[in-house]
Amino acid sequence: MAKVGFVSGAGAHGFSFESPGDAHFSVTAVLVKEEHKREVEEGYLRIRRRHFPQGSVSLPKVEPGIVQRHRFIKELKELNFSFHALLVDKRKLHQKSPLQYKDTFYKFLSGLIYNNIYRTVPELSVIASPLGTPESMESFRRYIQENHRVDLFSPAPFTFSDGEEEPLLQLAAFLGESLNAFHAGLSDTDVERELAGKCAGVVRWPEGYVPYTVDTDEGRADARDEAVTAAAQLRARDFLLRHAGSEDPVIKSRVAFVEYLLLVFTYNYRTRYVHTHELLQHLNSFQYENFTEHRFRSLVVGPVRDEGVLIVSSAAGYKLPCSVRDVYAFFNYYNQQIQPMLHRLGQCHRAVELATGGGLDVLGQPEYASLRKLLDRHL
């Protein structure tokens, strides 16, 4: 059954905690069946006009307003909708992480909730509140559709609107603001509890990473995993520090690449490989350069590794290593390619040397001295 999701953010980007209300950011999706959309909209407007005739559902600070707010929430139970939310405690975030950048903050955090609803709710159309300029929102829309939708061929649209045109975006914003206020200690109204029958889950983020033993070889954690993890993070952050402020578009692209890997590693899943397609979409959204897979590997991945950043890869994509297992998997991945290549070079060298009666010793060139050492056991 087709549904419509009304998605709105509450709170703002930034790490200036001058008041308790600055500590949280949330993204809330109000979900209604398409056939019930008009009925729910009319019901919401009717309830809003009764309790907030001025049109703005504001956070009350005095007792009469608080009572009114409780009555408003009680009547919302009559409407046929559900909601799902992501609640972010910004105090737990690294302020020097890539989330310090506004576009990355909104894109990454909103992506978490879209990832949930698209993989749970079939035939979902989305109407979202804008979080930036039209250009950045179009880039954001493409990012969500290409990285978080299960069925890329679905005709279900993803559009932006505001609360004046779509009243259920007001409801999503109200629920998000209520969550933020309650968890900041500014309100005693817990909409997650008050609307328990409507709540399809509030995800608290970030969650602490738990190193499950299933992530390591033979179900056992290796004592060296922590050292690998620390080195990967330290080298990534050192790279970002050294290149901060560069105006070179290729350097900026490399910084964006490392930032994204570090972001996923720190706040999502340490064991997750980021697919090349996802990375290309992320980098090309900045419009520093237009990268194909070949240009990405030669101009971004290779040079970043050359500077000492620890990046492991597999057929699944790229990531920072978090375990001895990651390191061995990376070496195995390349060893399976390098050893056959060395064998083929050795065969070619022997054949040419035989055909020319020893007159052509390709590996005799000084530029190939290191290669000859590698091939000695194949010759």
Please specify the SSE layout and strand pairing.
Blueprint: E1 3-10, E2 24-33, H1 37-51, H2 63-76, E3 82-89, H3 102-118, E4 124-128, H4 134-147, E5 158-160, H5 167-183, H6 191-194, E6 199-205, H7 225-243, H8 249-267, H9 276-286, H10 293-306, E7 312-314, E8 317-319, H11 324-355, H12 369-375
Parallel strand pairs: 1-4, 3-6, 4-5
Antiparallel strand pairs: 1-2, 2-3, 7-8
Helix pairs in contact: 1-2, 3-4, 4-9, 7-8, 8-9, 8-10
Overview of the structural elements:
- The protein contains 12 helices and 8 strands.
- It has 3 domains: 203 residues, Nucleotidyltransferase, domain 5, CATH 3.30.420; 110 residues; 52 residues, no CATH class.
- The protein is of the alpha/beta class and 379 residues long.
- The strands form 2 sheets. It has a 6-stranded mixed beta sheet with strand order 5-4-1-2-3-6. Strands 7-8 form a two-stranded antiparallel sheet.
- A hairpin with a 2-residue loop joins strand 7 and strand 8.
Features:
single chain, 379 residues, alpha/beta, Nucleotidyltransferase, domain 5, 3 domains, six-stranded mixed sheet, two-stranded antiparallel ribbon, 8 strands
Q: Say how many strands there are.
A: 8
Low-pLDDT ranges: 209-219
Mean pLDDT: 83
CATH topology of the largest domain: Nucleotidyltransferase, domain 5
Chain oligomer state: single chain
